[in-house]
């Protein structure tokens, strides 16, 4: 039997508002433990929450970007559970009346748009950070001491819940990339997973392909990169299929995915289901965003990453479009092309060489010159130039003056020397390991101090290896 | 000069200060002397403040009101030694008005009770008869004002904790419209019902103090703008429409002496020109008390979740986090908070929420509507405040239900968020009887005008006979 994975995601996005969700303490890294705290976020007697207006606006903004309906009336509730990271004994969170519902995100794929339902997006406050000391498990059970840092406590979080519309680890990754880029472009979060600004839990089940049933699901937590999310989903899907195929049943459980070992570890099952004793937070009034505000925010939305991918796909291919857009570099690409660079060459240079660079800091005219000269100037010069291209006042001119060595007469003795010095690799190449070409070219680059023209060197090496 | 704190009203005290016949320090000292003389018997105060900070009329604050630098326990062992680092908004407003705090007054633990016998620090006693209770939960403030241990004070009212003790001690107490006085910094009992209000010797003092504490507070999202407070002057009730709700005046358990005094006051109102008519609040009275005992404990169970021994107050160590919390709460909470936490957690638990908390909130809407309908025909509704005069210490401690019935007549309007004023209207068995005046939302000025006219005509002597 063939099986279809069914995955729904819960994504927490930490908003980068200046202050916390319900008090005016600074929101952000930097302070020593428990320095960004006040009676409100420490849950002192009588302290009351006052909602952060910007966080409310940004939630609406995000909801609109995810195609959601914006609730005319959203209500914060209290969610109770006893834990030292929760100073009030409850977390304030929207519950049955969230700010955003019924959205959808279209994920461009080679087979057309893949629709992912956004069930809801709601606003809540984050818990504090516990450090369990002693006991060796890193958990509260058995720890001799638990240290609590309340700096993170009360920071604003938006939780986004998707429908069970994702059917592969790769789909999950694509969706998350798009969501992350959306959030970043709205300017509401830096969404860096390693800093916990974006957290992903996955609900995973499998079903016989072609069926529409929803079987028992398991929840995966603690995956701190998109790659680990994909790996975790693959591992869980494999585990469930193996269980069913050996006549077993899946039991609802929560797992931590350990990326290093690729292993899933079940958390201790709770004897009883959680009872959070939700009820509407009486210290707050309902959130009723005025229609004019919602309209204004809708008008301010930038073009969505998905729409830009579709637009770029017409000029490039899907994969390059995705890389450029989800890397936030598509505007730079367009400007570079407009400055005269070749489309494909510009896309390759930007996608392969400028990942993580702030595209807005790059002068497209200078970049276009580099793209144009990429095969002509020495590799080392190109590397150096691309490394500095985002610096203020960068000029391509000094690099363009350098000529790469492409004269065979000059390169030939170098190539010959390298082949002589590496007889094993030469034999291996001739035995079919053609991937070693790059090794030889690399050696040429090293010998010439990066001045060789890569294409000329490559052709020459291939020629020599095939010759004898 | 000799200051007779038993008789001195706040307005008179203000006159003395303005004419510089007495200094604020001397005034403060006079009350401390009276406290030294009479408080050992009455136990109104949990602690006093020796130095007069401010140049105005001193004030007593119920110990649920956070005071920076002055221990605030809410009558509970779990907050023993807790010294707030911030002032409640009402305390800050009193300070801004120059009112020195004389001390923190006794209260039932977390304001849960009708006699102050639930205080972890021992009961207060009624100045009219020290074998009897002063009412509760704000019995400390009421008894202090009555015994000349404070010219005025602040209480907090959830289901009658200002009005009922004022009735039992023979002074004037206002439970303001929900949302007119900030709850920020007031140790929470039931957030959707808690309201701070003034207690004084007469209606003008009560109105003056209300004008100091009322008004929108950015730190409490549930506060509203408040109409300007008018100090009442006239003695006529011409044109005022007074409704007498049958169920509040004929309820089982109302003592004949209480009924008689209230009847006399109603007759007097008629003589002063009021149009008096009968009305009905059948569902408010039948369901008010049971619904209150679902909503208030539910919110209390949530509000008291923060007392876990982690950050402030009592901590009893244990072998694990859970054990530490359990031991702390077991040792720190008295029987009544424990009873209400259990009731409330049950009412909020999964599967019961709709039947209990949810249903009670719906009934609350019915109570609001029923009162609103009555106020289409009447400006003010009247009834006894308490069904009985002050009862003996210990009379109801073994029977929580009998104690809960003390608030039968005050609870319905509290559930509707309406203001209620108690004024003394006579004696029964030598003990004060209180008249409850209820108005629509934000009708405090009407209540003050009515109360002032009646109090002037009644000529009640608020000084306990045994102290004259």
Folded structure, characterized:
The complex is a heterodimer of chains A (468) and B (468). With 468 residues, chain A is an alpha+beta fold. Chain A has three domains: 3-289, no CATH class; 314-400, no CATH class; 408-467, Orthogonal Bundle (Arc Repressor Mutant, subunit A), CATH 1.10.10. Chain A is built from 15 helices and 14 strands. Chain A has helices spanning 53-65, 169-186, 226-245, 291-300, 305-313, 318-326, 330-338, 343-353, 364-373, 379-388, 397-400, 408-421, 423-430, 437-447, 454-467, and strands at 3-14, 69-70, 76-80, 90-94, 100-109, 112-125, 129-133, 145-149, 156-162, 198-208, 218-223, 254-258, 263-266, 279-280. In chain A, the strands form three sheets. Chain A has a nine-stranded mixed sheet with strand order 2-5-6-9-1-10-11-12-13. Chain B is of the alpha/beta class. Chain B has a single domain (10-280, 367-467), classed as Alpha-Beta Complex (Amidase signature (AS) enzymes), CATH 3.90.1300. Chain B contains 15 helices and eleven strands. An eleven-stranded mixed sheet of chain B has the order 1-3-2-4-6-5-10-11-9-7-8, with helices on both faces. In chain B, helix 4 runs parallel beside helix 5 (163-169). Chain B starts with 9 loop residues before the first helix and ends in a 10-residue tail after the last helix. The relative contact order of chain B is 0.15. Classes of the chains: A alpha+beta (468), B alpha/beta (468). The A-B interface holds A 39, 42-51, 78, 80, 82, 84, 87-90, 140-141, 143, 146, 148, 273, 275, 277-279, 282-285 and B 64-66, 72, 74, 79, 82, 84-86, 88, 183-188, 190-192, 218-222, 298-299, 301-302, 304-306, 308, 310-312, 320-322, 325, 345, 348-350, 353, 357.
């Amino acid at each position: 039997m063939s099986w279809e994975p069914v995955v729904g995601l819960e994504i927490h996005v930490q908003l980068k508002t200046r202050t916390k969700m319900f008090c005016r303490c600074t929101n952000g890294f930097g302070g020593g433990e428990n320095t960004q705290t006040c009676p409100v976020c420490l849950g002192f007697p009588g302290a009351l929450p006052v909602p952060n207006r910007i966080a409310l606006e940004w939630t609406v903004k995000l909801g609109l970007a995810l195609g959601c309906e914006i609730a005319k009336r959203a209500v914060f509730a209290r969610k109770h559970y006893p834990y030292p990271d929760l100073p009030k004994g409850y977390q304030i969170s929207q519950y049955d009346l969230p700010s955003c519902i019924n959205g959808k995100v279209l994920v461009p794929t080679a087979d057309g748009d893949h629709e992912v339902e956004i069930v809801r997006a709601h606003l809540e406050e984050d818990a504090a950070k516990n450090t369990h000391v002693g006991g060796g498990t890193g958990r509260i059970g058995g720890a001799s001491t638990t240290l609590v840092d309340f700096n993170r406590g009360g920071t604003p979080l938006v939780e986004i819940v998707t429908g069970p519309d994702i059917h592969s680890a790769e789909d999950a990754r694509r969706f998350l990339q798009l969501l992350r880029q959306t959030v970043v472009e709205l300017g509401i979060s830096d969404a860096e997973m390693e800093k916990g600004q974006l957290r992903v839990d996955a609900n995973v089940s499998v079903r016989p392909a072609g069926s529409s049933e929803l079987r028992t699901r398991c929840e995966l937590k603690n995956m701190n990169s998109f790659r680990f999310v994909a790996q975790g989903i693959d591992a869980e899907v494999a585990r469930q299929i193996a269980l069913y195929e050996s006549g077993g049943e899946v039991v609802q459980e929560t797992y931590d995915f350990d990326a290093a070992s690729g292993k899933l570890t079940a958390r201790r099952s709770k004897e009883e289901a959680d009872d959070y004793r939700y009820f509407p937070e009486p210290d707050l009034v309902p959130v009723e965003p005025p229609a004019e505000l919602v309209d204004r925010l809708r008008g301010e939305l930038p073009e969505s990453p998905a729409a830009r991918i579709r637009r770029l796909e017409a000029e490039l291919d899907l994969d390059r479009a995705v890389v450029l857009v989800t890397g936030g570099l598509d505007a730079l690409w367009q400007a570079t092309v407009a400055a005269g660079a070749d489309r494909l060459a510009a896309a390759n240079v930007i996608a392969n060489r400028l990942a993580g660079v702030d595209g807005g800091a790059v002068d497209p005219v200078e970049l276009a010159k580099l793209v144009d000269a990429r095969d002509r100037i020495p590799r080392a010069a190109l590397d150096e130039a691309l490394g500095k291209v985002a610096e203020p006042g960068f000029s391509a001119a000094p690099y363009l003056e350098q000529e790469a060595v492409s004269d065979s007469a000059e390169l030939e003795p170098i190539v010959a020397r390298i082949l002589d010095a590496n007889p094993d690799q030469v034999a291996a190449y001739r035995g079919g390991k053609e991937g070693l070409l790059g090794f030889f070219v690399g050696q040429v680059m090293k010998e010439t101090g990066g001045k060789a023209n890569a294409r000329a060197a490559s052709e020459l090496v291939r020629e020599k290896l095939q010759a004898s | 000069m000799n200051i007779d704190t038993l008789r001195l009203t706040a307005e008179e005290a203000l006159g003395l200060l303005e004419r510089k016949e007495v200094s604020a320090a001397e005034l403060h000292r006079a009350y401390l002397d009276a406290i030294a003389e009479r408080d050992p018997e009455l136990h109104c105060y949990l602690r006093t403040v020796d130095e007069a900070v401010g140049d105005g009329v001193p004030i007593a604050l119920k110990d649920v009101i956070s005071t920076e630098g002055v221990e605030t326990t809410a009558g509970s062992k779990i907050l023993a030694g807790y010294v707030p680092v911030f002032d409640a908004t009402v305390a800050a407003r009193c300070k801004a008005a120059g009112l020195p705090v004389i001390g923190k007054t006794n209260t039932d633990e977390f304001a849960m009770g009708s006699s102050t016998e639930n205080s972890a620090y021992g009961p207060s006693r009624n100045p009219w008869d020290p074998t009897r209770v002063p009412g509760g939960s704000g019995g400390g403030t009421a008894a202090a004002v009555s015994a000349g241990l404070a010219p005025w004070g602040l209480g907090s009212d959830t289901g009658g904790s200002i009005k009922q003790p004022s009735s039992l001690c023979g002074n004037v107490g206002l439970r303001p419209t929900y949302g007119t006085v900030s709850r920020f910094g007031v140790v929470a009992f039931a957030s959707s019902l808690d309201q701070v209000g003034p207690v004084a010797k007469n209606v003008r003092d009560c109105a003056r103090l209300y004008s100091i504490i009322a008004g929108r507070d950015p730190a409490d999202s549930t506060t509203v703008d408040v109409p300007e407070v008018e100090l009442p002057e006239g003695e006529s009730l011409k044109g005022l429409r007074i409704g007498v709700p049958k169920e509040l005046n004929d309820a089982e358990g109302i003592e004949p002496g209480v009924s008689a005094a209230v009847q006399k006051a109603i007759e007097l109102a008629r003589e002063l020109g009021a149009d008096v008519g009968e009305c009905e609040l059948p569902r408010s009275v039948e369901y008010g008390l049971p619904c209150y005992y679902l909503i208030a404990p539910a919110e209390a169970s949530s509000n008291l979740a923060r007392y876990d021994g982690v950050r402030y107050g009592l901590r009893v160590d244990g072998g694990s986090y859970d054990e530490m919390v359990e031991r702390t709460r077991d040792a720190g909470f008295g029987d009544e908070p424990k009873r209400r936490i259990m009731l409330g957690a049950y009412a909020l638990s999964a599967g019961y929420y709709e039947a209990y908390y949810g249903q009670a909130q719906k009934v609350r809407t019915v109570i609001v509507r029923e009162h609103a309908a009555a106020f289409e025909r009447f400006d003010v509704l009247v009834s006894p405040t308490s069904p009985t005069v002050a009862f003996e210490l210990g009379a109801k401690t073994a029977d929580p239900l009998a104690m809960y019935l003390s608030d039968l007549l005050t609870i319905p309007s509290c559930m509707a968020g309406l203001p209620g004023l108690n004024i003394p209207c006579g004696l029964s068995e030598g003990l004060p009887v209180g008249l409850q005046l209820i108005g629509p939302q934000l009708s405090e000025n009407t209540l003050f005008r009515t109360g002032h006219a009646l109090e002037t005509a009644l000529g009640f002597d608020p000084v306990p006979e045994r102290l004259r």
